[in-house]
Amino acid sequence: MKTISIFFLSLFFLFSTFSLESVKLATEEYPPYTSNKISHNGYIAKIVTMAFAAVDYQVEYQFYPGARSFKLAKIGELVGTVPWSHRKEREEFFYYSRPVAVADTEVFFVLNDSNFSWDPSKQSYEDLKGISIGGVRSYNYGDRFQDAENSGLIKVSRVNDVRQNFRKLFNKRLDVVISHKQVAMHHLNNTFSKSHMYRIKSFPVKTEEQKFYYILFSKKNPKGEEMKNKFNEGLSIIKRNGLFDEILQDLKDGRFIEINQ
Questions:
Q1: 30: closest CA among 249, 184, 247, 191?
Q2: What is the predicted pLDDT for the residue at 257?
Q3: pLDDT tens, residue by residue, 16-36
Q4: How far apart are CA 118 and CA 232, in angstroms?
Q5: Rounded-to-10 torsion of CA 251, 142, 136, 116
Q6: Is this structure's pTM higher than 0.90?
Q7: Range 45-50 average pLDDT
Q8: Which of 1, 60, 81, 108 gives a 20 to 30 Å CA spacing to 230?
Q9: What Rg do the C-alpha atoms of the chain give, in angstroms?
Q10: C-alpha dihedral sign at 145, 151, 153, 155
Q11: What is the pLDDT at residue 2?
Q12: Where do the domains of the chain lie, and which CATH numbers do they carry?
């Protein structure tokens, strides 16, 4: 009965949006969290949509590259951007929402027959000298990785899409792919065969405390603080009524899949 009631509540939120005030948020292609190619625009997008719907707002997602999404919210052209992890320096420009979801973790992917080894507790990037690593443009993989890349200690080839890197890895044109784990698994499951999946293994890049994703609400936008408060209120509502847990279960069950365009 609880599942049925939550299902109909979800339908109510979705189909009553024609009468709701709109909130415009910038985001990027970051599946399974946010994507205009995935049902409900992704896992985090559905949480945000339902939280705002609970307080009588509808969300309009505008998809841009990550750096552009950040800038549009920073200058106040849009009220906010999602999803972002917490960084102290961003507090000058943004209000942080309550945590929306657990943040993805970075991992190294290699072929099973690779002799690659890595100790996440030490993060000795000296050990990666001479190894070709594939990353994605504009992604930040942590201070120590960035420092090693910027200093020239490690060789990183960056492309626009992690799938390009996995193709290179399977063709042995890269030694290692660094990626956020859930993002990588989504693309691997949707782009490559199971036989490809069996050819790779992964290593966590670092050991760290659990982190979260947030909405960044612009301090330059006159509605930034108000929308932060509205979202936080709506998030509390969908956590109390069970809808938040239903969405999380959908993610675990693999229901945020790519749809035909």
A1: 184
A2: 80
A3: 545 679 999 999 999 999 999
A4: 39
A5: -90
A6: no
A7: 98
A8: 1
A9: 20
A10: positive
A11: 47
A12: 2-102+210-252 (3.40.190.10), 106-204 (3.40.190.10)
User: Residue 172 is which amino acid?
Assistant: K
User: Amino acid identity of 159?
Assistant: V
With a cut of 90, say whether residue 8 has pLDDT above it.
no
Closest alpha carbon to 234 in 58, 101, 79, 55? 55
Output the six-digit token pair for 33.
């969290």
Judge whether 205 and 146 are in contact, CB under 8 Å. Answer: no
Q: Which of 62-71, 74-83, 101-110, 246-255 has the highest mean pLDDT?
A: 74-83
Alpha-carbon span 107 to 190, nearest angstrom: 19
CB 173 within 8 A of CB 217: no
CB 18 within 8 A of CB 56: no
Angle at which helices 43-53 and 2-15 cross, to 10°:
80
- Alpha carbon distance 108, 159 (integer Å): 16
**Given a cut of 50, is residue 259 above it in pLDDT?**
yes
Q: Which two tokens stand for residue 102?
A: 């657990």
Phi, psi of 47 (to 5 degrees): -60, -50
